[in-house]
Write a structure and sequence with these properties.
Blueprint: H1 13-21, H2 24-43, E1 50-54, H3 60-66, E2 71-76, H4 79-90, E3 98-102, H5 110-113, E4 116-122, H6 131-138, E5 142-153, H7 155-164, H8 168-172, H9 191-200, E6 204-211, H10 228-238, E7 250-256
Parallel strand pairs: 1-2, 1-4, 2-3, 4-5
Antiparallel strand pairs: 5-7, 6-7
Helix pairs in contact: 2-10
Length: 258
């Protein structure tokens, strides 16, 4: 079950929606994730899929996928996030087959929710005190040959950003602060640790991408002809190349269940 250290965004729901998706950062996240996901979802066939958006907030991808005709279960521990989701679903121009489930993702089970062709878990793992066990439990809801999409906050990129910003004392403290900033993840993950988990779970990796491999390292003084659209194009171009992939503020792993 949820522990006291796991994060609930009820009090930050408006700030979260604005800061995460209403920015260039959000555009980059959406572009990279959709570039990775779209062909794999298409490869599963023409029939409507069952998709779980675990810890999906107000359901950015839930709504996109439901608009394509898929059946989506959107789960989140934040009642306020799900309230935003319902408002947006109700206002949609097309009917959206989205079921809202208010609970921690640890409470999901095959007995209650069944199994899914696709499971999304984006920007959730880094808020969990025990991401390994929670994600392992989540995989019990994934069908054989199903697709698992995990995006997590990269601890090494967090360190590198602090180094190039000159925050050396912060790095010496292993990036620990007395008072946590609202949207700074409490339990960032190392890429190699998560790769080992995927190997342990016998997941077959389809692709790996860095998310925000350039944006967070941009200089403050940009050229006068700087173009955000070109930035997104460059993010897509370099997101799957090393060493840029490993510098992504987030990392996206897309894998198939055996």
């Amino acid at each position: 079950m949820l522990t006291v250290q796991d994060k609930n965004f009820d009090k930050l729901s408006q700030k979260f929606a604005k800061n995460i998706y209403g920015t260039t950062k959000g555009e980059i996240r959406a572009a990279v994730l959709w570039r990775d996901l779209a062909p794999q979802i298409a490869a599963l066939g023409d029939k409507p899929l069952r998709i779980l958006d675990a810890g999906g907030g107000f359901g950015f991808f839930s709504q996109k996928l439901a608009a394509m005709g898929h059946e989506v279960v959107l789960c989140d521990i934040s009642e306020q996030m799900l309230f935003q989701a319902k408002q947006q679903i109700d206002a949609s121009d097309v009917p959206l087959n989205i079921s809202l489930v208010h609970c921690p993702i640890q409470a999901l089970s095959p007995e209650k929710q069944g199994q899914f062709d696709v499971i999304l878990c984006h920007a959730v793992a880094e808020w969990l005190i025990d991401a390994h066990s929670t994600l392992q439990g989540l995989l019990t809801l994934l069908k054989p040959q199903g697709i698992f999409s995990l995006m997590f906050y990269n601890k090494e990129a967090m360190r590198f950003h602090s180094l190039v910003s000159g925050n050396f004392d912060y790095v010496k403290r292993d990036m620990k602060v007395k008072k946590k900033v609202g949207l700074t993840p409490t339990h960032p993950l190392y890429i190699e640790d998560v790769r080992q988990w995927f190997n342990q779970w016998q997941l077959s990796m389809i692709c790996q991408s860095g998310v925000r491999v350039i944006n967070d390292y941009l200089k403050h003084h940009l050229p006068p002809n700087f173009d955000t659209q070109q930035l997104i194009e460059m993010e897509l171009l370099y997101s799957q190349r090393e060493p840029y992939l490993s510098l992504g503020r987030y990392v996206h792993f897309l894998a198939k269940n055996p």
